[in-house]
# Entry
Amino acid sequence: MPARSFAFFDLDHTLLPFDTQALFCNFVLKREPWRVFLHALFIPVAIARGCGLTSTATAKRAFLSYLKGMPRERLDAYAHEFAEVCLPRWTYPALRAEILRHKHQHRILVLNTASPDFYAHHIAHALDFDYCIATRFEVGAKFPHMPRLVTGNNKHEAKIAAMEAVVPGLTELTERERANSWSYSDSAADLPLLDYAGFGVLVHPSKSLAAIGKARDWAILRPARPYGTKVGDMLRVVLQIFGLHPE
# Structure
């Protein structure tokens, strides 16, 4: 059997400079501006999260209140258009080049993200990934107020368990195959994913994560971003959740 190798990519702030949950919200509100008023359903949960009274997973479910009542067919159409039209504009060219390099070198490409599956799978298809692992939501014919998480929030070690359950051959990787595989992320939450492969690549890491990367001989990429600071990033998020950011 020929040797296998993989390339694992996080999505938000790794393949592009934004949180795609906010960016997809911006995309939807450009088309249905009235949905901004549905954020009122999210406010109590956001306050509770800020006070440590509820979980990140619950806050993620509540944030999606702006989609309440949307027919599944329209949601799929928006997700497809978002992936095909909006994402290419924002994907880092350097990371797009890395995807193409690994594709040329016959690695199996896996997008592994905590973002919602109902648009993440469209993104994976648009970027020519072989597999997509994402946070799974139970949507139904019309989007519910608080969509149920099917398997929990896809973060930390959960990314590894979900990936091994879906991607054939991962649990049988030899040391040589694992050593010839690559992982990309911006976040310390993805240390399990970064450690899973022989080569780790950090994208705009924090100082603490960069120190970990230096100790483990990981590469660092710092592609140009449309903001210079964390404050600039947060300003973009605010604009996006109100539908005021360019697509």
